[in-house]
Specification:
The protein has 268 residues and is mainly α. 76% of the residues lie in helices and 0% in strands. It has one domain. The longest helix has 32 residues. It is built from 13 helices and no strands. It is a multi-pass membrane protein. One of its GO terms (molecular function) is undecaprenyl-diphosphatase activity. Catalyzes the dephosphorylation of undecaprenyl diphosphate (UPP). Confers resistance to bacitracin.
Amino acid sequence: MDGQTIVNALILGIVEGLTEFIPVSSTGHILLLGHFLGFESTGKTFEVLIQLGAILAILSVYFGRLWKLAVTLPSDATSRRFVFGILIAFLPAAVIGVLLHSFIKEVLFESPALICTTLLVGGIILLWIDRLPLRPRYTNVMDYPLSLCLKIGFCQCLAMVPGVSRSGATIAGALLMGTDKRSAAEFSFFLAMPTMAGAFAYDLYKNRNVLSADDLTLIVIGFVASFISGVFVVKGLLDFVSRHGFAPFAWWRIFVGIAGFAGLYFLG
């Protein structure tokens, strides 16, 4: 393992943390960037396992709310319904992720042109949704009905295709089903916890016998970088979305998609 590989792992970890919670596709970004950096991880585990840093970023920022949920869970029906709603939303991705794990890692993760396409198309869709004159019916994540949570969970399954964006799919689906922008982004935060924790645990289990000490060192570097950059994003994203909407992220997706196609054409 040389110094350049360590630097690449650090860069990719920072990008993971910066992009995990915004609707631009963190996986698409690190796979595409890793392609041009020449970064290869064993079984594409690095790209999945460093998401643990982003999970801990949410836990650190939302610790107060999570603790309150845990304390009030036995006695408060609203808290129980919210937690149950998150679990219901998590189930579709859990089932599909297990069934299609090999196809996702061995085919979809190895398709830079597909990632560029989904970044572009997703940016256009997000821009269209951001400009719709939507009238939200739900403005508090604690009040989301269970049927809405399940529908958002099915939307999250679209993110099995790299470049679609887990947060982008859940936020876009939530907005079209009557939520406001701030609560849609917040629900995506909470849904990320079981989703990414599950992906981390399953991928680690599947690749436990092929990871070397060097692989684990790179994963730790990426994990720490992801955590630090993720904290900054989680702290500021909701206020940013409330003021500016999702159009800036849509334009960024379009820019990266076009730049990616240009890079593939000129660099291969």
